Write a sequence for this structure.
């Protein structure tokens, strides 16, 4: 049975813009591939350790190197070694991706933590988004990466969402669009493919797609004005790839297919309506589509995995991200091809676009190995740390201020109340931040006692006079990082009866500093001085102390509603 060749002319258009030599490579490579080689190109596999065992496993399952790999942060030496090994043995160069959201720290442990997207957004400077992209691209390219799983262009409408949060550029669609487009443009000018994510748009549901198939509930018209506008802007900026999430968009699914029953509505990663109708059709996206991680419950819940794996490709995705079990998922994909879920034409079209991205990046013409010494020289450069400091200085936001409290004064007595959890989703999130800030304040001459909740009970708690009249300030530090596999990020107060909650705001000047989550006013609405930092790297902590001590003014412009839509959070 003859197979109709894909329309290669799409690779001459945006965002690929392939010239004759690159287009010929795509055509000839596709024509010479076996079925197994084509199927292997569909997979982008997680690489965590960068060791020989992981490399052998890839070759064993896929008969060679799959279409792409995604690095979790590892040492520069391991990242370079794994890349060079793939380069030596891969007939078709792989896409090498990483979560380049906050800096080069998303791929190598020595990488620069530039700043969270929301921190960048708080500067309200497109130039800062460009600097973020530059650091991400330069440090990732140094170890062989060519694909940024960024920018995140979700809109953080729902403050309860535990996973979008500081990973986004905030809740203003215009600012998200400006910064997402700037990141896309710069990272691609520097030789990496951007991946705008997570289509059809996270941040409007308080639930996490890692745990449930979530919903973008906007009307078609409202979606078009917000998420649609952001996606169009980034598509026009040239985004080569788009990552689709395990997120339903019922309004558009029903408009594109009026016969759909509610139970038939699928998330973007499985929905032909959203992939071919909304993304390719309505928005005109011509680049490569990749699913989000298919290990998430949001993907595994809607249908049996045996059907879901090939259905993603059949519905319009070109690449399949991660595997629950590599052998099993590969067998499901191959079975889907044999039983007709994936047509030979759809397989060829998907592989054509994957090869098209590789050709657009020039991977077919550049097989130079990386050198560890050169990579290390390109990572953590002094100007990158200077940029991170500049970003922090412009971002830290004074949300509420009780007059006469700031700046802090040396020699004053402080009751210090840390609220901290272990590092969450963000690999660069620091632990021990509260203790670090305490040491910095002590170095400024403040006299600090750390709050001890004790083991009392009602009727026998410490008297009010043990605090009122004894301390000049009460300072809270909140370091609660957003994390996957958690349904909410809220403050949990100490027993008995929330003994460490801010009960003395009307008697002792009280300051709440959130280094990560911008929405803690929900739980401390009557705090009169509230500061958002959006990130906990050293650059932020340095700038925070300067601002607390009055050596630097607060400059940040809140990119979200830090008051969480509540009237009482505005009270003083």
């Amino acid at each position: 049975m003859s197979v109709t060749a894909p329309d290669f002319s799409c690779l001459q258009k945006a965002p690929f813009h392939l010239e004759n030599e690159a287009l010929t490579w795509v055509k000839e490579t596709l024509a010479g591939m076996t079925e197994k080689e084509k199927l292997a190109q569909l997979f982008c596999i997680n690489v965590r350790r960068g060791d020989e065992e992981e490399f052998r496993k890839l070759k064993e399952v896929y008969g060679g190197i799959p279409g792409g790999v995604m690095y979790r942060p590892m040492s520069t030496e391991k990242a370079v070694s794994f890349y060079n090994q793939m380069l030596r043995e891969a007939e078709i160069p792989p896409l090498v991706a990483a979560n380049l959201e906050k800096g080069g720290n998303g791929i190598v442990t020595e990488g620069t933590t530039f700043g969270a997207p929301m921190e960048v957004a708080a500067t309200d400077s497109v130039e800062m988004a460009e600097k973020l992209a530059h650091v991400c691209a330069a440090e990732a390219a140094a170890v062989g990466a060519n694909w940024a799983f960024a920018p995140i262009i979700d809109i953080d409408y729902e403050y309860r969402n535990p996973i979008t949060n500081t990973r986004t550029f905030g809740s203003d669609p215009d600012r998200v669009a400006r910064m997402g487009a700037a990141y896309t443009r710069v990272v691609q000018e520097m030789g990496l493919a951007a991946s705008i994510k997570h289509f059809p748009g996270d941040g409007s549901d308080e639930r996490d797609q890692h745990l449930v198939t979530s919903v973008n509930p906007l009307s078609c018209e409202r979606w078009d004005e917000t998420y649609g506008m952001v996606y169009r802007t980034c598509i026009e900026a040239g985004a080569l790839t788009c990552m689709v999430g395990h997120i339903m968009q019922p309004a558009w699914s029903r408009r594109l297919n009026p016969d759909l029953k509610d139970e038939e509505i699928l998330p973007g990663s499985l929905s032909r309506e959203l992939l071919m109708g909304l993304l390719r059709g309505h928005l005109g996206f011509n680049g490569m589509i990749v699913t989000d991680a298919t290990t998430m419950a949001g993907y595994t819940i809607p249908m049996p995995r045996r059907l879901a794996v090939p259905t993603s490709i059949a519905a319009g995705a070109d690449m399949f991200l991660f595997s629950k079990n590599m052998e099993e998922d590969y067998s499901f994909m191959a079975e889907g091809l044999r039983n007709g879920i994936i047509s030979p034409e759809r397989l060829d079209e998907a592989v054509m676009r994957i090869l098209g991205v590789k050709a657009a990046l020039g991977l077919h013409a550049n097989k130079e190995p990386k050198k560890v010494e050169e990579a290390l020289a390109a990572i953590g450069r002094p100007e990158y740390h200077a940029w991170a400091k500049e970003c922090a200085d412009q971002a830290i936001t004074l949300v509420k201020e009780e007059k006469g409290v700031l700046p802090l004064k040396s020699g004053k007595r402080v009751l210090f109340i840390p609220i901290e959890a272990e590092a969450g989703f963000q690999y660069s999130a620091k632990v021990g931040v509260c203790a670090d800030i305490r040491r910095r304040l002590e170095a400024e001459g403040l006299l600090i006692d750390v709050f001890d909740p004790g083991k009392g009970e009602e009727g026998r708690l410490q008297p009010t006079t043990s605090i009122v009249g004894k301390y000049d300030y009460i300072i809270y530090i909140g370091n609660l990082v957003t994390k996957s596999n958690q349904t909410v990020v809220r403050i949990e107060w100490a027993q008995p009866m929330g003994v460490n909650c801010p009960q003395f705001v009307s008697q002792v000047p009280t300051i709440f500093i959130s280094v990560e989550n911008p929405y803690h006013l929900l739980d401390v609405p009557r705090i009169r001085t509230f500061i958002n930092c959006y990130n906990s790297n050293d650059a932020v902590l340095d700038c925070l102390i300067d601002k607390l001590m009055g050596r630097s003014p607060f400059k940040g412009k809140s990119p979200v509603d830090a008051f969480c839509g509540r009237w009482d959070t505005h009270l003083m």
Summary: The first strand starts at residue 43 and ends at 47. Residues 170 and 389 are 20 Å apart (CA to CA). The chain has 18 helices and 16 strands.
